[in-house]
Amino acid sequence: MPPHRIVTLLPSATEIVCALGFEHLLVGRSHECDYPPSVTKLPALTAPTFNVEGTSAEIDERVRDIVTRALSVYRVDAAMLAELRPDVIVTQSQCDVCAVSMSEVEAAVSRWTGARPTIVSLAPYRLGDVWKDIETVAIALGTTERGVELAERLKERCAAIERRATALATRPSVACIEWIEPLMGAGNWMPELVEMAGAANVFGLTGERSPYIAFEDLVRRDPDIVMLAPCGFAVERTMKELAPLERKPEWRAMKAVREARVFVADGNQYFNRSGPRLVESLEILAEIVHPETFRFGHEASAWRRLYARADGPA
């Protein structure tokens, strides 16, 4: 028997629950859960404890200050959570900066009387972990078979792209940028996606946290392609964040810039959400890396080429 009331406190968990067919049992979400769009009608049970507006550098400074003082980056509305009385709460323990943590959820329900909810904590670092998390959520919802079937469908879609990409003659080098100021590469599952899309990953290691990188290292590696997909940023917001890169003379001299192979992708809806749409993230990468072979229709809505001219920015 599935539970009657579910709360999901990170976007990927919401997407997993909905993909398993249980959106109708959701009674609460995090402030960032916005897909499918219909979930936005649910009450938001979390909120950031800092101002999320501003440049990437300003946001980084605020978050570092909070973490240094051992404070929480997000707050949980414990009163509303208690009022909703969920049977299952899905949260995470991978990154305290990305979403509300397991410890904060446990603290919020610690004073409950009567039956306690089942708390499912996700901690994916690579693609295999994501598929396993789908099965873990399904087990908690009493539908193990659905979880296995969904994970297998997603894995096969990825494998089909990888098979086509592996047969191609070229493997361009790709630098995936997860934050602009300070500059960060992309770790966790991103190196896997890059390789599956038929490219050579430049920064970041599979299963490890995203690394800080020096701009000089980016210039020295001079990748064929640069893809900017900052965590939590949509395309338009990233487009406004490019000044720290574009004002550097070395940026204009890079191969990817000269050849107009710099791309901005939606790091909020894709790439940084460890759920079913990592398959679409792979499709986006495949379109960017091998446009002559892959066309899934994501261009314009999920990614765009930064420079139209072959000589890069004016």
Protein architecture, described:
This protein is of the alpha/beta class. The chain folds into two domains: 6-123, Rossmann fold; 169-305, Nitrogenase molybdenum iron protein domain (Rossmann fold, 3-Layer(aba) Sandwich). It contains 13 helices and twelve strands. It has helices at 11-19, 56-68, 78-84, 102-109, 127-140, 144-166, 190-196, 215-221, 235-239, 243-246, 249-253, 255-258, 278-289, and strands at residues 6-8, 26-28, 46-48, 74-76, 88-92, 118-122, 173-179, 184-185, 200-201, 225-228, 262-265, 303-305. The strands form three sheets. Strands 7, 8, 9, 10, 11 and 12 form a six-stranded mixed sheet that branches. Helix 1 (11-19) links the parallel strand 1 (6-8) and strand 2 (26-28). Helix 5 (127-140) packs antiparallel against helix 6 (144-166). It is globular, with a radius of gyration of 20 Å.
List the helices and strands and how they pair.
Blueprint (H helix, E strand, L loop, with lengths): L5 E3 L2 H9 L6 E3 L17 E3 L7 H13 L5 E3 L1 H7 L3 E5 L9 H8 L8 E5 L4 H14 L3 H23 L6 E7 L4 E2 L4 H7 L3 E2 L13 H7 L3 E4 L6 H5 L3 H4 L2 H5 L1 H4 L3 E4 L12 H12 L13 E3 L9
Parallel strand pairs: 1-2, 1-5, 5-6, 7-9, 7-10, 10-11
Antiparallel strand pairs: 3-4, 7-8, 11-12
Helix pairs in contact: 5-6, 6-13
